[in-house]
Amino acid sequence: MFFLRSRILHYSFLFLCVALFLFGVSSHSQGPAFATAGVSREERNGIYLYRRGALAAYAQPFRVLVDGQSAGFIANASYLRLPLSPGEHQIQIAPGGMAQVTTLQVHADADSRTFYEFVFPTGWDMRPSFQGAMIEARGEQQALSVLQELRRMASTSGGKDAPNRYNPDH
Q1: Listed residue (80, 77, 70, 62) closest to 133, CA to CA
Q2: Of 19, 35, 73, 97, which one's alpha carbon is 20 to 30 angstroms from that of 58?
Q3: Is there a contact between 150 and 54 (Cβ–Cβ < 8 Å)?
Q4: ∠ CA 51-53-58 to the nearest 5 degrees?
Q5: Tell me, what's the pLDDT at 120?
Q6: CB within 8 A of 2, min separation 6: which ones?
Q7: Residue ranges of the alpha helices (H) in 32-137?
Q8: Which fold has domain 41-152?
Q9: What does the buried/exposed string (b/e) look like for 35-70 if buried means 16 or more CB atoms within 10 Å of the residue's CB?
Q10: Residues facing 117 on adjacent strands
Q11: In the chain, where are the structural domains located?
Q12: Alpha carbon distance 87, 84 (integer Å)
């Protein structure tokens, strides 16, 4: 009887894992992909912050702060464009709860774009505190290939701007 019960639990666990995996694969929302066609040079410039898709923290959007002010969120497999004024800025990503806030000082130029990826340990190394998380600079070609597959997240700044834009005046 113990052997049969153990086998049922084992198969139930495997079924649950497969179901969660299939849900994750099929529920990837197909939002507007990164596109620069038809967008003016001024609207393309800024700092792009992105997060690749992962099962770890799948349903958890992370708050993005610029110079201490809320700039929006990056969810699983999404990016956020931050059109910052030229100069030095502090970008913070706060996963929430008791998680560690990750901070990076960046320099924004008026006529360029820069790419940063928020990376954190996943799999067996995943920690609820997001210990070891970093905001890493990425080259334009590498970032553009990743951004083609990501979706935009709408900013919650409450401004009249188009989705996914940070407006420091709000």
Answers
A1: 62
A2: 35
A3: no
A4: 100
A5: 84
A6: none
A7: 41-44
A8: Immunoglobulin-like (2.60.40)
A9: eeeeeeeeeebbbbbbbeeeeebeeebbbbbbeeeb
A10: 50, 136
A11: 1-29, 41-152
A12: 8
Residue of 156, 74, 69 whose CA lies nearest to 119: 74
* Strand order from edge to edge, sheet including 87-94: 69-74, 62-66, 87-94, 102-108
Q: Are 12 and 49 in contact (CB under 8 A)?
A: no
Q: Dihedral sign for Cα 104, 40, 155, 25, please.
A: negative
Residue keyed to tokens 């997240």: 153
Give the number of other CB atoms < 10 A from CB of residue 138. Answer: 18
Q: Which residue has the tokens 């360029």?
A: 112
Band of residue 95 on the pLDDT scale cut at 50, 70, 90: confident
| Amino acid 160: pLDDT | 36
Given a cut of 90, whether residue 125 has pLDDT beyond it is no
- 53-57, 141-145, 163-167: which has the highest mean pLDDT? 141-145
